[in-house]
Amino acid sequence: MSAGLDKGEIIAQRRLDFDQEFETFSSSYLRLRTEIETLFMSVWQGIVNHTALTRPKVPAARITKAPTKKNI
Q1: Long-range contacts, stretch 55-61, CB < 8 angstroms, 24+ apart
Q2: What is the distance, to the nearest Å, from the Cα of residue 52 to the centroid of all Cα atoms in its chain?
Q3: Mean pLDDT across the stretch 38-53?
Q4: pTM listed for this prediction
């Protein structure tokens, strides 16, 4: 565990795909919430027992400059 917010290793992660033609903000939110709860419940005992497998985070790509009309 790390004292900083979002500084520790990854305990659980799942990829989700969304169909932009059919998903709305509301339906995306509900699906994400359900998936988060399910994923959390699947690793909870490992977290409590300190046996959850973890892996280091891969640094995210950094955006250095927001696109403008000029460079789009």
Answers
A1: 55/9, 55/10, 56/9, 56/10, 57/9, 57/10
A2: 17
A3: 95
A4: 0.66
